[in-house]
Design brief:
heterodimer; A: mainly alpha; 7 helices; 77% helix; globular; B: mainly alpha; 6 helices; 0% strand
């Protein structure tokens, strides 16, 4: 794990939590949307909060896909769950929601879980691509020898 | 009856997002290390290779099913039940699926991590 890879994991965490918070803030402006006014849902994209939220979630998705290209799924998911903690902090300090004792307990459990997984290796199996490439090159090299 | 529908929706979300995560993870392992690929072939090659991957397209499809199941579930049940119940069950389901289908070595540390995070997410909604 290089510093750059930790940065990608941090980006997954921060972009995801920020994107969700921005969407939440934007949808409060939009109000309750009923199933009969679905065209209104398309218009919510004009809300600057929603637009920013979507951009952040696109960044989240790009970072998530990048992380999955070199790390296990069972590593990436827990390692980036600190986003839930960040989301709770944003909800408390920026959106002024109530964060109860039970929620803080949940935050502590998640943090311990993250500590558990990030101590281990990020990748525990050979990526299929490398296996395929080595299979491809083998017949060529043996052919050259003969 | 409505409660049964709600839990049915939660089951659908967990199933669809677990399938989606496994497919996306498999897709990105086939694409290869994005950082290295970007440096050697450029960003366009990374995007092109990803979008042409069958597993990636199927994964996105599964994620779309999960998203609409969530919307439907939210119309039947409380957000404080549906969202955390599906998120926390997905953590455990993904650990099982990654072991079976992706052959990841899920050691006791990772099981503990998945269970702790799942419990933590459930508490966040309580």
């Amino acid at each position: 794990m290089t510093f750059r890879k930790y940065l990608v994991l941090a980006a997954v965490t921060v972009f995801g939590a920020t994107g969700d918070s921005l969407l939440s803030r934007g949808m409060k402006d939009a109000g309750n949307i009923s199933i009969h006014q679905l065209p209104d849902l398309v218009l919510t994209i004009l809300d600057p909060w929603i637009l920013a939220g979507i951009l952040f979630l696109l960044g989240f998705f790009a970072a998530y896909m990048t992380a999955l290209s070199w790390a296990d799924l069972t590593y990436v998911l827990p390692a980036t769950s600190l986003g839930y903690v960040l989301l709770a902090l944003i909800a408390k300090f920026l959106l002024h929601e109530q964060v109860t004792t039970t929620r803080w307990l949940g935050i502590i459990l998640i943090s311990i879980g993250v500590g558990f997984v990030t101590r281990g290796p990020a990748l525990t199996h050979d990526p299929p691509v490398r296996q395929m490439e080595s299979n491809d090159t083998e017949p060529v090299s043996t052919g050259a020898e003969r | 009856m409505k409660q049964l529908y709600t839990w049915g929706a939660i089951a659908a979300i967990v199933l669809a997002s677990t399938i989606g995560d496994v497919l996306l993870s498999r897709a990105m392992k086939q694409v290869g290390d994005v950082g290295e690929l970007w440096r050697s072939h450029g960003l366009l090659a990374v995007v092109g290779r990803t979008l042409h991957n069958v597993n990636f397209v199927l994964g996105i499809l599964a994620m779309t099913v999960a998203f609409y199941s969530l919307l439907i579930g939210l119309s039947w049940g409380d957000v404080s039940l549906v969202a955390p119940a599906s998120a926390s069950l997905t953590f455990v389901a993904t650990a099982v699926a990654a072991k079976i289908f992706l052959h990841e070595r899920v050691d006791p540390h990772r099981w503990m991590a998945a269970l702790l995070v799942a419990a933590g997410v459930a508490l966040l909604a309580a």
